[in-house]
Design a protein that fits this description.
hydrolase; alpha-L-fucosidase activity; about 450 residues; glycosidase; binds alpha-D-glucopyranose; alpha-L-fucosidase; Immunoglobulin-like; Glyco_hydro_29_N
């Protein structure tokens, strides 16, 4: 074989082996792509759309027949975004201690908040705002050093070629050509969104069609080929990266090691001024701690007004969260799930190297705190965000028994946080627990 031929052969071999690699194999490994997500702990979700004009349920209000589609769409005329300040939004999100944010680029109502070329149902062509609302936000988020997430509803109840219109009315049930038109439209919009180079795609509405119909696998490879570092939530019919329990805090640790609880501040995703059922800042901090203790994130939602201002109650919650997260940074970001419940009567987490055990005290203790079954020697205990060293004592250890003694920690009132106090317990190595049923004396 000549030199020229062997080079040619090598070239052919190389390119064919590359094209043979499946899309999955070419992906950046999950652990690498999701590393920032696992450390992030807090994200802010934003549901902004025309539904804020009447202050009604996002998309569902017409789907469920509480308002006609025509009347719902009239809200476009009131969606003016005239006080929209994306830099302020991003700085407020940063102040809350969140590391990422996810904004609705298009909800189930089909109204795109960017200048999509796939249809004129967008805020540039049809809303009073007359502009692309996503680009300036994407820029502001990146300027603040936050990760950018884009929410996108796969289903689109307003699209003329999407089969479902309302709960009781379908446009068609089986029409391959129309479906194909819609599918192309979806791919077109998703391709447009890749230009924002998002760190996360947050899908929703996948339940109405199968993975095959959405071409979920192809959506995943499209996004990962255009934005290879990105991550995808689970609502892509089995082709996502992480789990998204909604509203209810999980009672036990979810199976997927990557997860995020998405939750509203009151009972609405979008702006609804008559919904005053806000959780308190204290309750939200405790929910955040609950997620942290199970190794997950909290994606907390805000619903801005149609003019782009953020309701006062929501600003206050974000700032209150900011006070607490800023003080307790060390015990939040990059932590891992804590120890099993029987060892401490409350939430716990571990540092990444498992040598610091964090205790979150969300009630006023009625005596010293207690840790049971800890085999490690303790090197030091202090109050996070304050530094005060705390006295502690191990009692009840028997020389003949493997059961560790009871570790009591004094927590004076003067160092307690008004929301959740955090205690750091520095161990002599990786946490080592005795979790058995106990031991009786065998012989002596
Ligand atoms: C649900 C709803 C939707 C909301 C979303 C947020 O899937 O359909 O209205 O945006 O939850 O998680």
């Amino acid at each position: 074989m000549t030199y020229k031929n062997s080079i040619l052969l090598l070239f052919i071999l190389l390119t064919s082996s590359l094209t043979n690699l499946s899309a999955q194999e070419q992906e950046i490994p999950k652990a690498e792509r999701l590393a920032w997500f696992k450390d992030a702990k807090l994200g802010i979700f934003i549901h902004w759309g025309i539904y804020a004009v009447n202050g009604i349920d996002e998309s569902w209000s017409f789907f469920n027949g509480y308002i006609s589609h025509d009347d719902y769409m009239k809200q476009l005329n009131g969606f003016n975004a005239k006080n929209y300040d994306p830099n302020y939004w991003a700085s407020l999100i940063k102040e809350s201690g969140a590391k990422y944010t996810v904004i609705t680029t298009k909800h189930h109502d089909g109204v795109a908040l960017w200048d999509t070329k796939q249809s004129d149902l967008n805020t540039v062509d049809k809303a009073k705002a007359k502009r692309d609302l996503i680009s300036p936000f994407a820029q502001a988020v990146k300027n603040e050093g936050l990760k950018l997430g884009l929410y996108y509803s796969l289903l689109d109840w307003s699209h003329p070629d999407y089969p479902n219109f309302t709960r009781n009315k379908k446009r068609y049930s089986d029409d391959a050509d129309r479906w194909e038109k819609f599918r192309k439209f979806n791919f077109g919009q998703l391709k447009e969104l890749t230009r924002y180079n998002p760190d996360l795609y947050w899908f929703d509405g996948d339940w109405e069609q199968s993975a095959e119909k959405w071409k979920a696998k192809e959506i995943r490879s499209l996004l990962l080929s255009k934005t290879p570092h990105t991550i995808i939530n689970s609502r892509l019919q089995g082709y996502g990266d992480y789990a998204t329990p909604e509203q209810g805090v999980p009672i036990s640790k979810p199976d997927n090691e990557y997860w995020e609880l998405c939750m509203t501040m009151n009972n609405s995703w979008g702006y609804q001024p008559n919904d005053t059922t806000y959780k308190s800042t204290n309750q939200i901090i405790r929910i955040l701690v609950d997620c942290i203790s199970m190794g997950g994130n909290l994606l907390l939602d805000i619903g801005p007004k149609p003019d782009g201002t953020i309701p006062k109650e929501q600003v206050e919650i974000l700032q209150g969260l900011g006070r607490w997260t800023n003080k307790h940074k060390a015990a939040i970001y990059g932590t891992r799930a804590g120890i099993p419940h029987g060892h401490f009567n409350g939430y716990t987490a571990l540092s990444k190297d498992k040598k610091i055990l964090y205790l979150y005290v969300d009630n006023k203790p009625n005596g010293p705190l207690l840790i049971k079954g800890l085999k490690n020697k303790v090197n030091r205990i202090w109050v996070v965000g304050n530094g005060t060293k705390l006295p502690y004592k191990v009692v009840g250890k028997q020389y003949w028994s493997a059961v560790p003694g009871l570790l009591y920690i004094d927590l004076p009132e003067s160092v307690q946080d008004k929301d959740v106090t955090v205690i750091a317990v520095l161990l002599d190595g990786e946490v080592d627990l005795y979790s058995e049923a106990g031991q009786k004396i065998e012989s002596n």
